[in-house]
Amino acid sequence: MAxxxxxxxxxxxxxxxxxxxxxxxPQAVALAGTRVRPERLSDPNAVVDGxxxxxxxxxxxxxxxxxxxxxxxxxxRYHFTAFGALGFAMVSSQTMREAMSVGLxxxxxxxxxxxxxxxxxxxxxxxxxxxxxxxxDLRRFLVERDASAFVTLQRDIFGPQPVIRALAFRFSAPANxxxxxxxxxxxxxxxxxxxxxxxxxxxxxxxxxxxxxLARQAAEEQCRRILDSRSxxxxxxxxxxxxxxxxxxxxxxxxxxxEGLHMIPxxxxxxxxxxxxxxxxxxxxxxQALADEYLAGPRLSIDQIATRLxxxxxxxxxxxxxxxxxxxxxxxxxxxxxx
Length: 339
Fold this sequence. Notes:
This protein is α+β, with helices and mostly antiparallel strands. It has three domains: 1-64, no CATH class; 80-211, no CATH class; 232-338, Arc Repressor Mutant, subunit A (Orthogonal Bundle), CATH 1.10.10.60. The chain has helices at 11-22, 27-31, 50-64, 70-75, 85-91, 96-105, 139-158, 177-184, 201-204, 213-230, 235-246, 254-260, 265-274, 279-296, 302-308, 314-325, 329-338, and strands spanning 8-9, 47-48, 115-120, 124-130, 164-168, 195-200.
C-alpha cells in the first residue's frame, strides 16, 4: 500500500474543488469519478480515501495543467484550522520544532501525498518530501501543494518571519518561477536530487507565544481517537462501515445497504457473520466513533448529536452511550472540560 493511501477528512477535497471552480472548472468536472456527492463536501465529519482525493486532483491537473505553479496556490489554502484537532495540537506546542514532530506523528490526519521526513543538522532542519510513490503525472502538483501547505501551516503557527534557507525540487523549472519566489521568499533549485525545505534551526527552538501543554495533550488525545475511528475494517465489513458512515443521519437500513452492494439482506448478513461481525455492530462502531468526536469537537447539543447519529430521539442515544462508556454524554463532556 502506498504511503498516501489512508483515510482522510474531506476538507482537502472541498478546498481543491473550490480552487477548481475559481479557475473555471465546473464542480461536476472536478468531482467526476470520485464517488463524492457535492453535498458531502460541506460535512466536516466526512472522510474519504486517498485515491478519491487523488482522482479529484487528476481532474484538476488535466483541466488546468501543472506548469503554472498551481500547486503553490493550492497549498496556501491549508491553514491550521483545516487540520482540525491536529492543527490545534500543533499550534499549542512548545516550539515550532515540536509542532513539526507532532505533525509527523499524526501524518495520517493530514492530507499529505509525498512521504514527509525531518532531518536535523547542527544549525538547520530539513523537511523532505519523497514523491517516488506518487503517480508521475501528478508529482509536480502534489509536491508543490504539500510544500506550500507546510509553509502556510508554519507561518500560521510561527508568524511571518523568514526561516526558510533553501528550497529544492526534483522536477524541472516551471514557466512561472516568480510565483515560487513570491510565496516561499527564496528561489528554488530544480532538477535537484530530492525535494526539501531547509529551515534555520535556531528560530524553531524558540518558545511559541500560544504554547499550552494541557491544550496540546488534550488535542493529541483527540487525534488518537480520530485515528482509531478511521482505522478501516477489511473486506465486506469495511465497505458496509463506510456506507453506514456516509448515510448515518438518514438511518440506513440493512436492506438499503445490501441493495447498494447488489445483494439481498440475507446474503449480507451471512457474509458479515463469516467475517465475525453483524450489521448492528458495524453501525454501533460508526456511531460510537462519531459520538466521541462530536462531544470533543465544536459544541453541539445532545439532541443535535443524536440526530446526526441517526437516532429518532436523544434518549436512545443517551442509553446507547451509557452502554458504550458507562456514563452519559453530558457526563463525558463535563469530564473533558475538566481535563
